[in-house]
Amino acid sequence: MKRFEASPVTVQQALRSLSAAGEIETRPGVGTFTRAKPVLRGVDFSWQTAALGTPQQKLEPATSLRSEPGNVIALHSGYPRAELLPVRLVRSALSRAARGNAAVSRADSAGMPELQSWFAQELESSMLPGLAAPSARDVVVFPGSQAALSALYRSLIGAGEPLLIESPTYWGAMLAARQVGVRLVPVPSGPDGPDPVALERAFAQTRARAFYAQPNFANPTGAQWAPESARRVLEVVRANGAFLIEDDWAHDFGITASSHPLAAQDSDGHVVYIRSLTKSVSPAIRVAAVVARGPARERLLAEAQAQAMYVSPVLQEAAVDVVSQPGWRSHLHSLRARLQEQRDHLAAAVSQHVPQAELAQLPTGGLNLWLRLPDETDLVELQDRCRVRGVMVAVGDEWFPAEPTGRYIRLNYAGADPAAFTDAAAVLGQELEQVKF
Amino acid sequence: MKRFEASPVTVQQALRSLSAAGEIETRPGVGTFTRAKPVLRGVDFSWQTAALGTPQQKLEPATSLRSEPGNVIALHSGYPRAELLPVRLVRSALSRAARGNAAVSRADSAGMPELQSWFAQELESSMLPGLAAPSARDVVVFPGSQAALSALYRSLIGAGEPLLIESPTYWGAMLAARQVGVRLVPVPSGPDGPDPVALERAFAQTRARAFYAQPNFANPTGAQWAPESARRVLEVVRANGAFLIEDDWAHDFGITASSHPLAAQDSDGHVVYIRSLTKSVSPAIRVAAVVARGPARERLLAEAQAQAMYVSPVLQEAAVDVVSQPGWRSHLHSLRARLQEQRDHLAAAVSQHVPQAELAQLPTGGLNLWLRLPDETDLVELQDRCRVRGVMVAVGDEWFPAEPTGRYIRLNYAGADPAAFTDAAAVLGQELEQVKF
How far off is chain B from A86, nearest CA to CA, in Å? Predict the structure, then answer.
């Protein structure tokens, strides 16, 4: 202060900046010092190899989690860009939560009652009349749907047991299964959903007690099950005394169709329903819910408690605040139009610049185009070459529980500015010519 | 609006209140209706019994998670009361995070670099000179220490494998172990820490690869290991090629002593260090870190990704904001004095009104008194009778991995207003007279 004739506040700010930059360090009760040079000798951790053994499962996250420098065109990501989020609602909700009781309290393990109630009511609003609707008590809140999947697999299935799963499907659902040690049994799924006969066969062969699926705007294909398929799948699940783990990840991302949860046709607890707000509200609002009824709910809740104790009430309160605002409805309304625009823009650019790519169907919801490329394509080489030229794409192999049935890539039309789509498609088209086996 | 001559805003507010109270429901695209009467027939979920089978482990959370009505004296809880939290800092930090980029973005699975860096630097600041300090990269951020424990057990130990654990110790650490299927091997631990010879014997008998312990202000006893014990335990762990999972839960709750992490004496990755901010910053800031080095860190990070993907950047940014403020240091300073006052007040009240209770040691840090009661005490009856009279206490049995070695209760001196301590102790003393076997 003396030397620079600066105020105490200025000096404290300077110290904080230097500390954040790692230039100085404070040893409490001693003083503040310029940072000591790090010890550079390599440490030998090889003893750990014996303690750890070989891993039971290689757990590797997929491409779509990769963060990217600001200047690339991110078609690989699993999230919508910030411009498609209800940013103003999220900021006000978090600010309100910061001022309230939620900021300094904990929550019940099952979740905050207002949020449980909102999830139950949302599902009830699409139920057929006469069916017993879920209650707020049937809802368990998790810190994101990944945690929900882990807890569901552990509580409903268990290590070593089989789980039927759509193929292709969400890599995170398979990652959680590998983590828990659940044995994946792929069931092929097309534009109308899985073939009920194939599903019946898989149940008979494996005696599985659960089937994981995304009936609405599946990740990655965008498929929405035909109503008749949905009805028959539900029959097969019921007849086998099994659970359908329905992941309604794209509930808020309908474009020319809306999500119709199968859980809305179920009142005897066969459908266990996952609904996340992370992608549509904000990736910072890590809140998902599982609606499960009967003993399954008890088993799941015990698991949730042992796994995470409870979810931050700040995030829960902000979540219920956002989705209760009138602005949330209007946001979803305009989101629909913007997703349609982004989808059509990317589909047109791909069709013009990547004529070799085959789009099985223009999705009626969700965030992704699922493109089949010629069988002689070297996908990893394609991904690398595109990345070098500033375009990130996701290799389709990551969405198959077993060997991929073709050469696919997934392009997210919601994660980047559509102004860049033509350039990105041109790069993809050019590089595709270079990467034949 | 017409009928009541009210503004659209007023009507919308009324509709939101009615909706929150469950009186009306909105079906999108159709309209708003008074809520349909619920379907009352009981649903038969008994088919689930066959699908679920019997649980591998009964997972039951402990008394100290129980929430209580506002008018009881809560001596059972595991948390400090709001008056002992840096409430103003937490609110400003959350408000700032609400306005920044963190509110609408995701984070790396390992955590936000600023927060990783803070945890690494905090540990470094108590390291002996000459030891290789951990880097920010050695830190993995979790949504609370319960999630960290699950991930650690799964990645470092594995289902069916043994884990040495202090007895008595934190029930959450045992709950996570049961959830993962880890086999607990109790090692008795006294006021100076575990007996290194008993620890060596347990390693030899079980070939365990890890030991879970709380060397500073252990929950529930408050014990802080003597420096010589700490050194010898670390030697035993090293000699057995094992990990010490050090849970420094009470790092911020020193009273007449400060926490001296064993991790600060380790540079070859034998100590895996858990540091949570949930109890000292705010229960709503569910953020904990694990400092792990070498291959253990890689294994742990893969597990963290599969389990929760990432922790909300809002909570991470708020956490690093709070602990970087000058006000955090002064808060910790005044917290020390207030904890001492609360501790002494409760200890005095117990000594006066519950002369039968034996306090082995006045803890030098932490949040709890660990009281031994006469061997003929019916603890559950005592807990029930006290609750009826508005005093919540925690039965000590929950802190023992096996059968309890005596009749203990744990009283938290930080969770309630000390003005009520004398009354609470009087109730406890009176009821204790009534519950002899």
Answer: 9
| ipTM value greater than 0.85 | yes
Say if strands B271-276 and B288-291 run parallel, antiparallel, or are unpaired. Answer: antiparallel
Separation between Cα atoms, residue B256 and residue B236, nearest integer Å: 29
Distance, in Å, from the CA atom of B389 to the CA atom of B412, rounded to the nearest integer, reads 18
This prediction's pTM = 0.89
* Interchain pair B48, A179: CB under 8 A: no
Place of tokens 């080489």: A381
Please give the average per-residue pLDDT across B414-437, as a whole number. 94
Which residues of chain B lie closer than 8 angstroms to A306, CB-CB? Answer: 59, 61, 146, 150, 175-176, 178-179
Q: How many C-beta atoms surround the C-beta of residue B273 within 10 A?
A: 25
pLDDT digits (tens, 9 = 90+) for B84-138: 999 999 999 999 999 999 999 999 999 999 999 999 999 999 887 778 899 999 9
Structure tokens at B245: 């999972």
Q: HEC profile for chain B?
A: CCCCCCCHHHHHHHHHHHHHCCCEEEECCCEEEECCCCCCCCCCCCHHHHHHCCCCCCCCCCHHHCCCCCCCEECCCCCCCHHHCCHHHHHHHHHHHHHCHHHHCCCCCCCCHHHHHHHHHHHHHCCCCCCCCCCHHHEEEECCHHHHHHHHHHHHHCCCCEEEEEECCCHHHHHHHHHHCCEEEEEEEECCEECHHHHHHHHHHHCCCEEEECCCCCCCCCCCCCHHHHHHHHHHHHHCCCEEEEECCCCCCECCCCCCCHHHHCCCCCEEEEEECCCCCCCCCCCEEEECCCHHHHHHHHHHHHHHCCCCHHHHHHHHHHHHCHHHHHHHHHHHHHHHHHHHHHHHHHHHHCCCCEECCCCCECCEEEEEECCCECHHHHHHHHHHCCEECEEHHHHCCCCCCCEEEEEECCCCCHHHHHHHHHHHHHHHCCCEC
Angle at B406 between CA B401 and CA B412, to 5 degrees: 75
Contact in structure between B407 and B374 (CB atoms under 8 Å): yes
Q: B309-347 pLDDT, tens per residue?
A: 899 999 999 999 999 999 999 999 999 999 999 999 999
Q: Most A CBs within 10 Å: which of B314, B321, B336, as the mutation test of the A interface?
A: B314
CB contacts < 8 A (A, B): 297
Q: Output helix, strand, coil percentages for chain A, rounded to the nearest 5.
A: 45, 15, 40
Separation in Å, CA A174 to CA A180, B144, B182:
10, 24, 23
